[in-house]
Amino acid sequence: MDTFRRYHSMVRGLRNSCEPILDNITLTRVTNTGISSGRLHWENTLGFFDVKGAMVPAAVSVFPREMYQAPRSWTEQAYPNLIYFNEVDAGNHFAAWQEPEIFTNELRAAFRSLRDEGRSS
User: Are 53 and 105 within one domain?
Assistant: First the structure.
């Protein structure tokens, strides 16, 4: 918990309350999914920043205080079917908590083209 607070002490928007964090921990514990989520990281033998060539439609929002800010050139190589790329003004790895409005707007913008495409079919 101390590491989490130290990491986010510079970022505005995270409430002093531990409730959101405890909610996530509880949800993981009650549903017994902690091991499987940790296993994804443990068993991943690919380099984190290796280009993977994912062919599904992908959207990337770059948050300014994220530990790694993916440059567009790398993103286009990693996701050949990139449908959305944007750099936003606030937030980091926990943007959904810190900047829920920006995060929601990014999700809507990212998949708008797919939604519009489905309507025209």
Answer: yes
**How many whole angstroms separate alpha carbon 79 and alpha carbon 30?**
34
- Total residue count of the chain as it appears in this document: 121
Q: How many CB atoms lie within 10 A of CB 60?
A: 19
Please give the mean pLDDT across all residues of the chain.
78
Range of the domain at 32: 1-45
- Flag whether pLDDT at 1 surpasses 70: no
Tell me which of 14 and 34 has the higher pLDDT: 34
Residue with tokens 């944007």: 86
User: 112: closest CA among 59, 62, 55, 61?
Assistant: 59
Clarify whether residues 64 and 21 are in a common domain: no
Angle of CA points 9, 47, 50, to nearest 5°: 100
Do 50 and 31 share a structural domain? Answer: no
Q: Which two tokens stand for residue 32?
A: 């017994």
DSSP state of 18: S
Decide: helix, strand or coil at residue 72.
helix
Cβ(114)–Cβ(57) under 8 Å? yes
